[in-house]
Design brief:
alpha/beta, 5-stranded parallel beta sheet, 8 helices, globular
Amino acid sequence: MRGKFIVLEGGDGTGKSTQLSRIQDVLLEKGIEAVTTQEPGDTSLGKKIRAILFEEIMDPEVELFLLLADRRHHIKHVIEPALARGKWVLCDRYRDSSMVYQAMARDQDAGWVYEWHIRAGIHLVEDITFLFQESMDITLQRRKARSVGTNRFDDLPLHFHRKVAESYLHLAKGNPHRYVILPKGETPECLTQRITDILMERFLGEKGSR
């Protein structure tokens, strides 16, 4: 049986990365093998692309073309093989990140981003997408507290990060069949429980504790 493709989306500092291993551990306890991955940068090629994206200043179009190269390679060498083996894939960011960061948060139509995904042969659709949200004050504190992994996107002005949050919410509300909007202010433990309950109910028909 083919696995499930689960994507975690949201602005920087909303807690996505923290949840990857937590969700994976809970799923394993339930007998479900899950693979955690991220975009960009979860292959040897991707790591090189990630370094360029995070260090070099470039136009949104150039950012997108680098991301498309990483995404196509990532799907072929990581995501699709895992799904074909029946594993669930937990991915930190996917195509909606490009819609938001390269277009919507810069007040551009995301249609051109979608079109280039099609041209690049990227057709894989998520089974479910979780939108992580948090207050601007908290996300700012988390970005400032990072000792490693900082990048030029973290340093963009506050109004850009606010546009990111607004753009994600717009996308999520426009795709209710795929998106689950998570509440702000919950502890990591509560978020893990909420997410795994939703996954178990949606894909296995099992009622959770919430």
